[in-house]
């Protein structure tokens, strides 16, 4: 396909141009607010004359925020760019605080809110409500001028602390030295990545190193050594987290809320913090008996394994045992994750997933040629596709751009996420700005003998994040405020979580697979040298292996949910303390470890872990909202059971899902979207049935 997209690739801003660009855009927005407040008295304020111009200004500047968000996650190698990103972000946060200080702007927004114009579109009415809430949640209508300024000063300080917290996450956290004989059991493909010196091996404290040691090292002492080092890292974030908690608590209480969670729930799908607490308690009650049975099964495998090695030991599964004996359990179920990964070379798997979306929705993903990417991508290896409509009445229309930055590198965000580079919206002249969205992942890079390979859980992760990107691409809101994944977090994870189901379908696994030896002749040569006399593996994953993978979905699933409940219960507890004094006296480390012992069922008796500060989830977006990952599981199971269970490839079902869920973004109430799609209230029944905890109804 040789069509030229009607919208050019998003321009990159250099270290020297980033800050001046942000300053210019923020000055223009401030000037607009000055014009509106000086020319429109509150009694004449209307949606079209106040709210719409402000929102259209924000639509036009969103891409600049997307740029420094991208740079923050991608980890620029040069200090000049990192400093420019930090300065740009500070300018943005400070300008937002200045905007929300303005009582004259609030007066206009309040007047429009009170007027409640009937001829405003549903999305427009949501814009009014959201803008009004921004000012109310900054203290207007509740606090006097001095109180508003104090509130916003604390909020600005929170943003500073969050940046410090995030900077700590991005830094290299060292590693652990091991003797060669301590690494018995670790595959060569993993250990070949590590540095060596005088017979010792240095394993970095990153996800790849942690997974390799905890999952493969035969020695319990080796696994425990790595586990303790990992648990001990990022202690500096504990103090930052405490400061953030206290400032958020203070801000919530001065606005009249009982807690930060009560403040946050106002902009969530869940109706109340009490509902969240009840939801989590019910899940815990349902899951714990099944979790104990799963732990007992692992304990038996541990005892048998130790006896086979002539070692003594009981059946208790410690925190550093879990991944090792889960791997042995998978092997008992005829699932060898290393073998499975050979059929999932990263680049091929990603392309296969795009092919699935072509089949499901008719979307066409056309690679942007390398020569067109010069000066448009932030790191070598970033891929870009132009996305087009391939069927129906919109056939031939440009949809947007998909970027993929999927390999780990130093300084880059260590997790996996989706980043909005450019949100879609309609300009005042009626023309469309199409979205640009980024898969930002940190999968292991290639080795000397193999391309980058994905374990099955990483296949699931990639498809999950691609689900967020799909949500971004097909959303068709008028404004950026509610585009794509800009929805309440307790709903926003549901669409991508639902897509994970396709990674557990044997037929889809076979379709996505291709043995890495067929990717490049050099890999085939290396494989033959390493396996003399053996026949090459099949190009496509054998059906029996795919079926074994699919059947393994139920293995330790209750324990996975219980692990999520540790964070969800912790997050709710710290954000619903009865008083500021109670929060000040709360020992977060002790609480987190108590919940780990009681819910994850994997004790670590001699170690206080700091896992709650190992990612930014509990400080950014999912603060007082980590339960969203669990409520999203319930919503996702409901979506799948209602629409896709009979035929996961049904084009009509996919079109219904696209039109009835994805295209709305957040331009319609999230609960209303679910009711409209399901024809009823969403519930937990489908989730419990999928876990085998409830009979079919």
Automatic annotation (TrEMBL):
UniProt cofactor(s): Zn(2+)
What the record notes about the co-factor is: Binds 1 zinc ion.
Q: Name one GO molecular function term.
A: metal ion binding
- Cited Gene3D superfamilies: Collagenase (Catalytic Domain), Endopeptidase. Chain P, domain 1, Neurolysin, domain 3
Query: Does this UniProt record's set of keywords contain Hydrolase?
Result: yes
Is Metal-binding a UniProt keyword of this protein? yes
Q: Name one Pfam family in it.
A: Peptidase_M3
Q: Where is the Peptidase M3A/M3B catalytic domain?
A: 216-692
Q: Name one GO biological process term.
A: proteolysis
Provide the alphabetized UniProt keywords: Hydrolase, Metal-binding, Metalloprotease, Protease, Zinc
Its GO CC terms? Answer: mitochondrial intermembrane space
As for family, the record states: Belongs to the peptidase M3 family.
Which protein, by its recorded name, is this? Peptidase family M3
